[in-house]
Write a structure and sequence with these properties.
Structural class: alpha/beta
Largest sheet: 6 strands, mixed
Distance between the termini: 15 Å
CATH topology: Rossmann fold
CATH superfamily: P-loop containing nucleotide triphosphate hydrolases
Radius of gyration: 18 Å
Order of helices and strands: EEEEHEEHEHHHEHEHEEE
Length: 254
């Protein structure tokens, strides 16, 4: 099906199955998130409903401050909603103990943050391998995975460089490799090109899309960049604390 003949579907409605034929992976129901700042009450999410199938690639669009980061943090178990429920593989996240949730995040979720969040005292390879070491993967396997991933993102000759010795684009590549080290089922990318120039940003998105296909992962990218969103077969519009609008299936996905 070509893009011009794509059939629109609600932005919060998943395809019947992901590209690999996968079923429902992630479901959010009536999510609300409110922050209290001094005397001010800030309602960020006001009833978000969302369903994502295994293997899907979706872009989450919205203006700055619309709640994209907040939603990703909730979906990835980094924060909890004031109201509503998140289910993964049919099981509510709220039913997991703190230890179960930590292990689930480590082994199932690959986070890519806009601010990189690399440890300045660790070199590129050590930063990439850290989540796998926390998951107690064997040292030899961890090293091989880390070196392979850094090679895939074009940093095979920067293994021993620390973050301060790397450019912004190179640091984001390290963050991308780190997110994939535990072979996650779900990748959550929060404005991964927000701090990069347009050319470097395009390169990062190309890499992310290619690695996602290779590893058969589900990908959700939060972005305000229309060009980045255009790469996704499905677009979710977040406005006024809710997901609305229409998404479309598009061919030509990398």
């Amino acid at each position: 099906m070509s893009e011009s003949n794509a059939s629109p579907r609600p932005g919060n409605a998943p395809a019947e199955a992901g590209p690999g034929g996968g079923g429902l992976l992630l479901e959010a129901r009536n999510l609300h998130k409110t922050y209290v700042i001094g005397r001010r009450i800030l309602e960020v999410l006001r009833g978000v409903d969302l369903a994502v199938c295994e293997g899907e690639f979706a872009a989450l669009r919205g203006a700055s401050g619309a709640g994209k980061s907040t939603l990703l943090h909730l979906l990835g178990g980094l924060d909890v909603p004031n109201q509503g429920e998140i289910r993964v593989d049919g099981r509510p996240l709220a039913h997991r103990t703190a230890l179960e949730l930590a292990r689930w995040r480590n082994r199932t979720i690959g986070f890519i943050f806009q601010a990189y969040h690399l440890f300045p005292e660790l070199d590129a390879l050590e930063n990439v391998c850290l989540p796998a070491r926390m998951a107690r993967v064997g040292a030899g396997v961890v090293s091989r995975r880390g070196r392979d991933l850094l090679g895939r993102v074009g940093l095979g000759d920067r293994l021993d460089h620390k973050p301060m010795e790397l450019s912004g684009g190179e640091q984001q590549r390290v963050a991308l490799a780190r997110a994939l080290i535990n072979e996650p089922r779900l990748i959550l990318a929060d404005e991964p090109t927000g701090n990069l120039d347009s050319r470097t940003g395009e390169e990062i998105i190309e890499l992310l899309c290619a690695l996602r296909v290779e590893r058969k992962a589900t990908l959700i990218i939060a972005t305000h960049d229309a060009k980045v969103a255009a790469r996704a077969p499905r677009v979710l519009e977040l406005a006024d604390g809710r997901i609305g609008g229409a998404g479309a299936d598009r061919d030509g996905e990398p």
